[in-house]
Amino acid sequence: MSYVDKLFAKPGNNIRSVPSALHAGKVYQYVDNGEPMRGGMKDVYFSPDRSYVVAFYRDRQDYNSKERLKKLVTQYYDAFFNRDGGEYYKELYCWPTDMVEMQNKVGLIVPTYAKNFFFKKGYAESEGIKGKEKQGLWFASGKFRHPQFSLRLDESELGSWLSYFQICVKIARGVKRLHAAGLAHSDLSYKNVLIDPVSRSATIIDIDGLVVPGLYPPDVIGTADFIAPEVLATKHLELHDPYRKHANRTTDLHAMAVMIYMYLLYRHPLKGGKVNAMDAEQDDLLSMGEKALFIEHLTDASNRPKLAQISKWALPWADVSKLPYTITGPYLKSLFDQAFISGLHNPNLRPNADTWEQALLKTTDLMQPCSNAGCKQKWFVFDNTATPKCPFCGTPIKGTLPVLDLYYQFKPTVWKPENHRLMVYHNQYLFNWHVNRNILRNEKLTAEQKVPVGYFTFQNNKWVLVNQKLTSLKDLTEDKDVPPNTMVDIVDGKKLLLSAEEGGRVVVVSMANK
Predict the structure, then answer these.
(1) What is the DSSP string of 264-323?
(2) What CATH number has the domain spanning 136-361?
(3) Are 130 and 121 contacting, i.e. CB atoms less than 8 angstroms apart?
(4) Contact present, 395 and 371 (Cβ < 8 Å)
(5) Phi-psi domain of 222 (left: phi exceeds 0; alpha: psi -120 through 50; beta: other)
(6) What is the DSSP letter of 399?
(7) Distance CA 219, CA 206 (A)
(8) What are residue 392's phi and psi, to 5 degrees?
(9) Cβ-contact 159, 200 below 8 angstroms
(10) Are 69 and 108 contacting, i.e. CB atoms less than 8 angstroms apart?
(11) Which strands sit side by side in the sheet containing 474-475, from one edge to the other?
């Protein structure tokens, strides 16, 4: 029985009411059995129908805090959700909807997490976490997926490697939208992001700690493992010391990069084998702060993980020689270098959320399904070698694979490469965002733009592209049109004009594993 079920199974539960602090006459109900769920700063109670929770702050909130919470549930709520695309963001954030106040106690009304963000099975060998929230920390560690670890997660909860790329895209979009509104989360971590690898979804929680630069300072410095080095390096200074660094947009960018690295590689990017102080607490402070060093730094290997010091449950993921960060592909490798080398101690050089989103999406276009049915990760990123193989199980690719390089029209008759490739696999779809560079693959896509316009398939011992909806697809190699409901062979050297409309792309085919 989950905690929630136990809560409502107890006899003598009391239904209490609390008025809205902002809307006269509006009242919320909650179940008080004397044992609320306790968060870092709040006591949390479910509504009778479990559709929302009432979260009361344990400490008294001053005028400025109340004003911040008021803006959060009115001005910012309206800006995020009561405009075009608002429904998309309702799934991406667990955003408070109202503020309540009673007997000097201030609280928030927060929607209950969707059902998919609670474990259905949990551990493979027990029900110890069944019904608990799917905090990201369960999915960012190698030990919880190790086949011999007693507390490993059930395979039905894990999804595939592709799932985590898609989850990271949503997290990047969520951070991008916050920053576009001038806000910072201040405590971005895998504890404050719930994920579901099965449905490939994510929701950012603990929104009430949002920082409004110049107006509302951060309440916390962040969660261990995700605090930016400059914040840790200056935390000893007085709170209002001008040299002390506080949570802001750039510290969010550090935390997001750490989270993406951990979701894809199941290890921490800064926790290596280098010792910076004999005292454990001081060593951790230096290793994550002033002397932080990327464990896969290109020229300084002093913080490489020492295998003799690593738990067997963390392997093979903790072995950077076996599963280096380069397995995430060239676009993400470049951003990890930017985040953990050039930008680690220079916050202004950290890649922004939009850059992460686009790199993640381009990387999904490089992914291949592993042909080994027993492969735990199920997908991998094409490594651009002559004999590609899955880095997780070692299974080589069988047969040839088409690689489509995308080109855009720089000026009439001049086409330039976009540094964007589409790897083809059997029954893979082609979408409008591949066809036309003016159609951006983001949260603003219309339903019509999400419909496939063609698909690739391997039949009769050859690759073909089946045109479903493209009205101006043309085989430039053979100088002939390819109308809808017909197909064109995909062979080495083939050039295709995907669309004659403005922004339409040309693709050039090369064959891998020939």
Answers:
(1) HHSS-SS--S----SSHHHHHHHHHTTT---TT-SS--TT---GGGS-GGGTTTT-TTTS
(2) 1.10.510.10
(3) yes
(4) yes
(5) left
(6) S
(7) 12
(8) -90, -40
(9) yes
(10) yes
(11) 414-423, 401-411, 506-512, 495-497, 474-475, 480-481
273's tokens? 């084998």
Fold of 399-512: Tumour Suppressor Smad4 (2.60.200)
* Residue at token pair 């991998």: 380
Task: Place domain 3-112 in its CATH homologous superfamily.
Answer: Phosphorylase Kinase; domain 1 (3.30.200.20)
Domain(s) labelled CATH 2.60.200.20 in the chain stretch across: 399-512
The predicted structure's pLDDT at residue 374: 94
Q: Does residue 22 register a pLDDT over 50?
A: yes
Structural contact between residues 132 and 5, judged by C-beta atoms closer than 8 angstroms: no
Percent of the chain beyond pLDDT 70? 96
Residue 84, phi-psi category: left (phi > 0), alpha (psi -120 to 50), beta (remainder): beta
Distance CA 437, CA 433 (A): 6
Distance CA 351, CA 141 (A): 24
| pLDDT value of position 211 | 80
Please give the Cα distance from 294 to 208 (Å, whole number).
Answer: 31
- 3-state DSSP assignment of residue 460: coil
Are 108 and 99 in contact by the 8 Å Cβ rule? The answer is yes
Tell me the pLDDT tens digit for each residue of 386-402. Answer: 788 999 999 998 888 99
Across 36-40, 133-137, 187-191, 461-465, least confident range: 36-40
Report whether 388 contacts 376 (CB < 8 A). no
Cis check for the bond before 316: say yes or no (omega within 30 of 0). Answer: yes
Note whether 26 and 13 are within 8 A (CB): no
The position carrying tokens 């503020």 is 99
- Reduced to 3 states (helix: H, G, I; strand: E, B; else coil), residue 165 is helix
Of 409, 367, 376, give the one whose Cα is nearest residue 394.
Answer: 376
Produce one character per residue of 54-77: b if its CB has 16 or more CB atoms within 10 Å, e if not.
bbbbeeebeeebeebbebbbeebb
Q: Report which DSSP code applies to 395.
A: P
